[in-house]
Amino acid sequence: MQITRLFLTRFLLILVLLVHTGILLAQSLQDIQNIKADELTDAQVEEIIRRAESSGLNEQQILSMARERGMPAGEIAKLQQRIVSIRSGRMPSGGSNQEGSSLERVVADGVQQPDSRERLREDTFRKLSYTQKKIFGFTLFHNRELNFNPSLSIPTPQNYVIGGGDQLLIDIYGASQQSYDVQVSPEGTILIPNVGSIQLSGATIAAVTARVKSALTKIYSGLAGPDPNTFMELRLGNIRTVSVAMVGELNKPGNYTLPSFASPFNALFVAGGPNENGSFRHIQLYRDNRLLQEIDVYDFLVSGRNTANIVLRDNDVIIVPPVRSRVELIGPVRREGLFEVKPGESLTDLLRFAGGFTSDAYQDRITVTRNTSTEMRVEDVSAAVFERFIPLDGDTYRIGKILDRYENRVQIAGALMRPGTYALQPGMTVSQLIEKSGGLREDAFVNRATIYRTKPDYSLEIVSVDIHAILDGTAEDVPLRREDVLNIPSRYDIREEYYIKISGEVNKPGAFAHGENMNVADAVLKAGGFKESASASQIEIVRRVKDDVSGKLAEIIYVNIDKDLKISGNGGETVLHPFDHIIVRKSPGFQQEQLVRVEGEVYYPGEYALVTVDERISDVVKRAGGLNQFAFARGATLIRKNEFYEAPTESEIKTKNLTSVKGNISRDSLEQTAYDRILLDRIDQKLFENEASGKGRNGTLLSAEFRKQTIQTISEQDSVVIEVKTQEMVGIDLEAILRNPRGPEDLILEEGDVLSIPKELQTVRMRGELLYPTTARYRPQASFRNYISRAGGFTDRSRKSRSYVIYANGDVRRTNRFLFFTFYPKIEPGAEIIVPRKPERQPLSAQSWIGLASSLATLAILVNNITR
């Protein structure tokens, strides 16, 4: 029972689906007789094709349905053209014929954009096999950019033959007005009211026009006579379709319904063209069981002649026979590939099909590989017999390239006006080549030049020549040979580049090109002038020592120059030698301002400039107004930058200050003075120069870098972590300092020092290996152990003996032990108790245990031997 119910359910479901599909297709095609093919979009045509495919209908069945429902023959032809156009944009699935095969799925909707068309063309070409791509003419019928569909919008050709199914539109105008819309019957006749039947089958448009006009004179007398007052015009409306059979070596053979304007080319395009085995030059068109014409596609591809421009008729047969003779052409020709040759065609014709030689082809000889009855044979074909040499089926022609060498080339390089490649003339010499290249440049080194000569065995020969002597006529000119390369160097190519270097207190230190008669003042000017801190006296010039065997490393010259760089007879006019190094010292009396900061509980906190080099903490506290009533002197600390601190570079300081100056100038152009605008331009230029020159840092001293490397080495050797800080806290006793100013506790301040004086502190912080690290209120009578108890006590991993206290002023005190007694540090307000962790104990490895066991065993044997 359940099986029967399941079967009935499935049967009803399938029946509903079939009925639903039929209804949808019927709705799509029920009004097909009213469809105008030209008004359909590609998407609508694709939808018709898709629904037909889903119902198992092919193209012929769609057209038959349209004909049965009364669609005019002309519209049927246009609809078929639209379907063919859609299908021509797809690759054929194989050699299936038109009848009995479903239409392929549409690959594009609507109008294709240029990039889409290019992509589709590439996809089509990519799907062709390697052999198909090589066959000349094969891609013609697989190129989506081409369309051989017949044009239906042209005027009716006068030689068009009327047949059954054509629609004729006849207009009478003048003294009489009348229009007739008649269709040619299958018997080739038309019926005009009040005139009768007129036989038109087999007649051309011109003949039909004459016959119809003659028949209409019976009722329109004004059409006849030498001076008619009534006129007739006959034109073709919807055209008929013809059925053409496509057989033979085609990609898609079968019967095709085509418009009556179609030519054999249109039919070949619809059928996908000849396949790999099909002939492109012996395509046969049969009509009424006799050969009407043999079509050669090469005439169209090579010469542009369309010999197949014949209008097809109903029941025409196009046969594509197998290819008879095909050869391959390889090498530098315009079109490589496989070519079909006819009997009697020569190698010259084959080269014409290939578009001729390319510019780099060797044209005097072609090598051909030819099949014999038993093996292969190689033949050499000279250019003299190209017209007489007959290609045979299976031949392979290989064309070589010209040699990659020059028969008359010489080259000249170096200090010439126009170096390069020149033609070697008979008897050409070195001087003639120099003259041909425009002559020597002023910097040419003429004492010695080199000719690099390639000998017949391709080894290299060096020939040295004296250009100066040759040009003066005091030495014999040197003849040149093929492939000679003459190199005349510049005198700057054979010497070290000259420069001078300037460092110290100048605005743009660095290296600069040396010039003849360049003096010290010129170099300072090149370096942007002196800084404010520069000393114009005792300028050092470090000069290289040449050919000195005394062990002297350098010569030192001291000069004094005018700081305004005026031209005078002082040391500024000292002429510099190449590679001189100028060192401008800082003026002994110049000191840049140094700032310290006082923070916290003083009356006037802030930045203070150091007045003297030995200014101390007490001096700055006094300048800050002294401590206020809230100050906690015992908690005062001094924060000092150490040697690892990277101070801002001069370029960074200058950029910061110039940017600040620029920001303080009014941005309102109406408020800016001429000076402001010039100053802004100057600042922008300076900022640009600073950005270009300030990419590296020079704030770290070499000594600091050395110490940092030393600390890193110690850390690696001792397996400890040493953190390198740029600022450190210095423990001070401010109460002692204020009681005894300038005493041993009163430190001398340095640039960047920060003196921090906190408010009175009332807490103690506990950190490290404690059960509950916390911060507790300070109690004067509480001891170290009391505070540890308030934090829950030590953990199991705490290292009690290493506990220490950091006081508010930065001092540190550690726990000490003597015999069985432990002495803990005293606790003060603001202190921080630190309990470190015991070091991790690494478990013994297997090798260590083995070593230990071996040692114990040895010891046991030794003890046993001693006690025995």
TrEMBL record:
GO molecular function: polysaccharide transmembrane transporter activity
Domain Soluble ligand binding per the UniProt entry, residue ranges: 244-288, 328-374, 409-453, 500-550
Statement: the UniProt record of this protein carries the keyword Signal: yes
Domain of life: Bacteria
Keywords attached to this entry: Signal
Residues of the Polysaccharide export protein N-terminal domain: 155-220
NADP found in the keyword field: no
Signal sequence annotation: none
InterPro entries documented for this protein: Poly_export (IPR049712), Poly_export_N (IPR003715), Soluble_ligand-bd (IPR019554)
Gene3D superfamilies hit by this protein: Outer membrane lipoprotein wza domain like, wza like domain
Protein name as it appears in the record: Protein involved in polysaccharide export, contains SLBB domain of the beta-grasp fold
Source species of the chain: Cyclobacterium xiamenense
